[in-house]
């Protein structure tokens, strides 16, 4: 009897990566967070090929991550703005930046740091909304019928 090949896991991470999991997509979102909303600015600040960035911006717009707003009539020109779904990527962008700062910045340190409105250095912290405790790999479990934890306990 032939063994059954398992189906790919249904996963929100995989679904998310279909939309924002490509380098130029996340860098475009980064630029819009930083205030660079026009196509030429985004291309210049990311270093992306124009046709590639146009495709990524189209995908992000179709997925509802970005919206387009006309800022000039003659010629018609548009800028990109974050939708609610796009703004909700802020913790993702911040966590990626922080991880890169910690593991990839080398001797020169992070290229830029951000501060919160209170004046302290901004960092990401994942917490349980119910109890306020830090959420870590060790404390996370998966709620599923089999009762398996994240690590397959």
Task: Give the helices and strands, then pairings.
Blueprint: H1 12-20, H2 23-33, H3 39-46, H4 50-62, E1 66-72, E2 77-82, H5 84-87, H6 90-104
Explain what the structure shows.
The chain is mainly alpha-helical. The chain has a domain at 12-86: Arc Repressor Mutant, subunit A, CATH 1.10.10. The chain is 39% helix and 8% strand. The protein is built from six helices and two strands. Strands 1-2 form a two-stranded antiparallel ribbon. A hairpin with a 4-residue loop joins strand 1 (66-72) and strand 2. The radius of gyration is 20 Å and the shape is globular. The chain starts with 11 loop residues before the first helix and ends in a 49-residue tail after the last helix.
Strand order of the largest sheet: 1-2
**What is the general shape?**
globular
Structural class assignment: mainly alpha
Report the CATH superfamily of one domain: Winged helix-like DNA-binding domain superfamily/Winged helix DNA-binding domain
Rg on CA atoms, Å: 20 Å
CATH names the topology of one domain as Arc Repressor Mutant, subunit A
In total, the number of strands is 2
Please mark out the parts with pLDDT under 50 across 5 or more consecutive residues, or reply none.
none
Write the element-wise H/E pattern from the N-terminal end onward: HHHHEEHH
What would you say about this model in short?
This protein is mainly alpha-helical. 39% of the residues lie in helices and 8% in strands.
């Amino acid at each position: 009897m032939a063994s059954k090949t398992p189906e790919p896991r249904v996963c929100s991470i995989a679904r998310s990566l279909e939309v924002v999991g490509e380098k130029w997509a996340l860098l475009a979102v980064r630029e819009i967070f930083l205030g660079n909303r026009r196509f030429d600015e985004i291309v210049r600040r990311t270093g992306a090929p124009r046709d590639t960035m146009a495709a990524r911006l189209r995908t992000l717009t179709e997925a509802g991550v970005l919206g387009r707003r006309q800022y000039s009539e003659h010629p018609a020109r548009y800028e990109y703005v974050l939708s609610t779904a796009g703004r909700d990527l802020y913790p993702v962008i911040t966590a990626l930046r922080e991880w890169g700062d910690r593991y990839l910045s080398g001797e020169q340190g992070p290229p830029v740091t951000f501060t919160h409105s209170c004046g302290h250095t901004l960092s990401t912290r994942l917490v349980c909304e119910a109890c306020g405790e830090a959420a870590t790999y060790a404390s996370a479990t998966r709620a599923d019928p089999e009762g398996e934890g994240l690590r397959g306990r």
